[in-house]
Known about the structure:
Blueprint: H1 20-47, H2 55-60, H3 79-92, H4 94-114, H5 117-129, E1 134-137, E2 153-156, E3 160-171, E4 178-184, E5 190-196, E6 202-203, E7 218-229, H6 241-275, E8 277-278, E9 281-282, H7 287-315, H8 321-345, H9 357-367, H10 374-386
Parallel strand pairs: 1-4
Antiparallel strand pairs: 2-3, 3-7, 4-5, 6-7, 8-9
Amino acid sequence: xxxxxxxxxxxxxxxxxxxxxxxxxxxxxxxxxxxxxxxxxxxxxxxxxxxxxxxxxxxxxxxxxxxxxxxxxxxxxxxxxxxxxxxxxxxxxxxxxxxxxxxxxxxxxxxxxxxxxxxxxxxxxxxxxxxxxxxxxxxxxxxxxxxxxxxxxxxxxxxxxxxxxxxxxxxxxxxxxxxxxxxxxxxxxxxxxxxxxxxxxxxxxxxxxxxxxxxxxxxxxxxxxxxxxxxxxxxxxxxxxxxxxxxxxxxxxxxxxxxxxxxxxxxxxxxxxxxxxxxxxxxxxxxxxxxxxxxxxxxxxxxxxxxxxxxxxxxxxxxxxxxxxxxxxxxxxxxxxxxxxxxxxxxxxxxxxxxxxxxxxxxxxxxxxxxxxxxxxxxxxxxxxxxxxxxx
Length: 392
Ligand code: TGC
Ligand code: FAD
């Protein structure tokens, strides 16, 4: 990729809504992305390799457990800082943000919220420092949008559980040290458990040939009579609400992250349009390109306001799951639309790896599918405003 010249748009002076700490955290993440992610990310995506060299940097900017208390190795930040970190990382690449989201909201969060003190002490500091990487196994080959139908199961064998089943489409699976896995017990109740790499019967084959999130590793989790020690069960919450609670936190981070991808596409397209001369004038001087750019900044600004407000609601413990769904759905669609428009502003150059836009566009095709598809989030809003579930 050519030099990272990113300048963040702030059309409504939203920085005035941020505290000094928010700006410090955001700027540190922004600088780190420019320095450590932008120079290597295109290559990593082209080669379909997760860039392991950035793991310690992610830990240093607080991307692993931003809101987890410091006593467990987290950064102890608020929800706005968490969101801003996700925004800046996804400005670099959605796949890198995925790794941070999974580690923070889908692995550290359930251990913090549903684990006992021993589990928190054993795993959280190592996850915060990046010594351990984790993954989250909810989706199965036959149960994606409907995780409540899962067939992965545990059987009580007295001194341990026996785990059988398979999970699919799992971010970080191929190299994760631990997996937070959701499985049904003999009564059909969903339980969370920590599966460690090296346990006999546990394998994590990689999923190849993706056109999206190529810098993030995706794989399966296969459990063939895996013996799970009883102390690896998360004791403090069960039922489908337990994994869905983790998803609230991750979906919130994605709502911010998508703004980052959109800002990068807009900024790239604006700069290109001002520099590219056709018919003896910059294409930015044409009404058609101005329409695209003006609509992009309008949608980014609306998403920034929506998401900032959601962050303040989360800081006050007042955000609902349905409000989070609305923001995830709106912002990812907004980012994808902007990526497609921005790609066109660059003409043929837009399809090359010289610019980040096409990579963002392809990444966002996963982001609009995972953590609840675009349709599912619409149905969650529909349920919230009518009281009538339309899933089944
Ligand atoms: P339903 O009957 O509505 O609910 C079952 C129980 O869960 C509770 N609940 C929630 N709790 C916390 N947070 C939420 N967001 C919740 N939504 C529901 C609910 O109150 C109930 O509790 P209880 O005590 O009464 O049992 O469940 P349903 O089976 O009808 O399904 C509802 C639906 C479709 C909304 C849900 O299944 C859903 O969200 N499906 C989408 C699945 C999904 O998002 N999968 C994501 C997998 S992980 C992933 O994609 C990671 S990608 C990471 C990356 O790389 O960044
Ligand atoms: P399906 O559920 O089969 O849906 C197919 C289509 O049907 C979609 O358009 C959907 O919107 C629509 N649909 C489904 N139900 C309804 C309905 N009731 N009404 C109307 N339309 C409906 N999962 C994890 O557990 N952990 C991970 O780390 C993880 N990482 C991922 C990484 C990547 C790159 C990808 C692509 C996925 C990842 N996932 C992960 C899985 C992801 O959460 C699922 O793909 C997603 O929840 C959708 O499930 P599905 O793909 O089985 O689609």
